[in-house]
Amino acid sequence: MRGPLHSAPVGTISLAIGEPSFDTPNVIRDAMLKALASGATHYCDQFGLMPLRETIASDERRSRRRSITVDDVLVTHGASAGLAAVILGVVNPGDVVAIEDPTYSLYADLVAFAGGTVTTFRRNQNGELDADSLHDAVRSARLVIVCQPSNPTGAILSSSDWGLIVEATRINQSLILSDEAYASLIYDGNAFTSILDVPGLETRGILCQTFSKKFAMTGWRVGYLLGPSELIAAASVVHRTFNGSVNTAVQYAAITAISDAQPDASRMLMEYAERRVVMEDALSSVSGLEARTPAGAFYFHCRYADSRDSTGLSRAATAAGVLVRPGREFGPAGEGHIRLSFAAAPEDIWEGIRRLSSVLDMSTERE
Amino acid sequence: MRGPLHSAPVGTISLAIGEPSFDTPNVIRDAMLKALASGATHYCDQFGLMPLRETIASDERRSRRRSITVDDVLVTHGASAGLAAVILGVVNPGDVVAIEDPTYSLYADLVAFAGGTVTTFRRNQNGELDADSLHDAVRSARLVIVCQPSNPTGAILSSSDWGLIVEATRINQSLILSDEAYASLIYDGNAFTSILDVPGLETRGILCQTFSKKFAMTGWRVGYLLGPSELIAAASVVHRTFNGSVNTAVQYAAITAISDAQPDASRMLMEYAERRVVMEDALSSVSGLEARTPAGAFYFHCRYADSRDSTGLSRAATAAGVLVRPGREFGPAGEGHIRLSFAAAPEDIWEGIRRLSSVLDMSTERE
Prior knowledge:
Two copies of one chain form a homodimer.
Chain A: E1 13-14, H1 26-37, H2 50-64, E2 73-76, H3 78-90, E3 96-100, H4 106-114, E4 117-121, H5 131-138, E5 141-147, H6 159-168, E6 175-179, E7 205-210, E8 223-226, H7 229-243, H8 248-260, H9 262-284, E9 289-290, E10 299-304, H10 310-319, E11 322-323, E12 325-326, E13 337-341, H11 346-359
Parallel strand pairs in A: 1-11, 3-4, 3-5, 5-6, 6-7
Antiparallel strand pairs in A: 2-8, 7-8, 9-10, 10-13, 12-13
Helix pairs in contact in A: 1-8, 2-8, 3-4, 3-7, 9-11
């Protein structure tokens, strides 16, 4: 998610931000300085800097306990370019791509660029994947894209959700792309199952990862794809054609992020966990806003009591001094919701939700 | 051009390099450090950092003496992503795109991604655009792409070449994209006419520029598009979908490049000018290699006396300890040529050409 990029009046509170409020940890910035000083100012390999690919492969191997080599890793210009590389690399005109509704809007945009058609699946009232809608959506899908923890809902895929996906796509052998940008932000000790840990997806599952959220590096633009080497090779053709190589010194900094900035990531996670409680408390104190507490990421996907659509309500909120994202941005099923980010200072969370509640007409007549 | 990315045996000389041999000037690296220290680690506007867009607009306005505003400027992930943004933004499946033969291979790759068809035009023996081939190629072209100074030939477009292009595309009002990555590297006081200075192209001409060559910033990945705001807006949709925003701190460094690193750029230009003479001398001392002295960039496009095709000869050269680029990479008309880079140390230029001459069989039987 890209943050709100228009300027707002002074005093406006943003609960729309899609990035960490923290600056990048110093240890990572220092690594960048060192790389630049040592002359890392030239092009590098278009698959990514070999020491970074090795570090990523080794790090994921340790977490995943499966065989991963550097040939399975492509360094990308953030998750955006990684998603683009996979989608443009494997989706041909007319191909069907199944995504959740609601979900991060970039997937459908990229599928449209590739000339593909989107089908959607949903979750049921218990927050589990709805088996019927999933089966319908993936019936002829070339690719299925999941986002977990979800932007905007914070939901994660349980083992049984994954089981449904594997089962539903077994006959077609659809490719599965899992955007796990927020995977480091999991609360309450919830179990998180990366696509890399799902049996049956070894040859058709691709992870899209980024340094942006975990290490507060959104402005650095570095991420990676990890999957079967043939799929990585296909994605690399797109990435090198559209992007060329990735910033060399940034890749040295990314190595340091993995090796030396885990304590910083843990510290930020604890801070987000506290803010999540703050937002939960703030929401419970007002009428007309309700949300399932997210398992991960840093958003509440709130259902609201108001007669306006989410775009109209967001506009009214802006006028009242608080920025939010309209749920409609994330798909038809996002309508009737707004997305509130708790990657904001605690006092801003309280005041932002107070302002928001003040504009609700408490009517739900549109439903 | 991306440099050779495979590793070669120790002692191998590279005349294949597509980037400055210089590290990025210190003043630019220092600006990056300062930006990082001040917290420029977050997402920025997807059109580019406003102060950078203002600096670019102001800098180009001063050189060009025409009206240029920030709405005409899109900051891109290097020239690669700029080219991709224009080509994917304006070329629809089935559209014709005219390019020179030979030219930088990325254009045709991107046109293929967009589903377009390539037609080609050539220069005559005097190095001028061939009017007939140009008229044929652009007849139904949606877009014409020029590269000047040319990679691989170093040729630039004279006023009369530009006049031919304007005339040939007047009826269709084809869009013209000019890749001027090497525009800062012009020798012997040759007159260089940027697309921004061509009368008649104000509403359909787009400049693609990069900080890579002029400021030795290939590893930084920052460039820009400059053209009519409607075309820039179309390109921006592609760029933000495929790339998101560009590294924020890098954009601060790019501001400093424009404002404070012109003396460094001049120093590097003088150095390249000397190396060009070295390569000219080295070539004149051996038989079987001949080339027009390039007006710009840092390549000689050499015709060779040997029975092998350019791929075969390049392979033989590698075995003899010198890397070169086969002319065929740049199009059919590049066959029978190799591209030699003088962005290499003078002693390497001499020794590289000596090694190259040693593998020539001096036969030209394939022609």
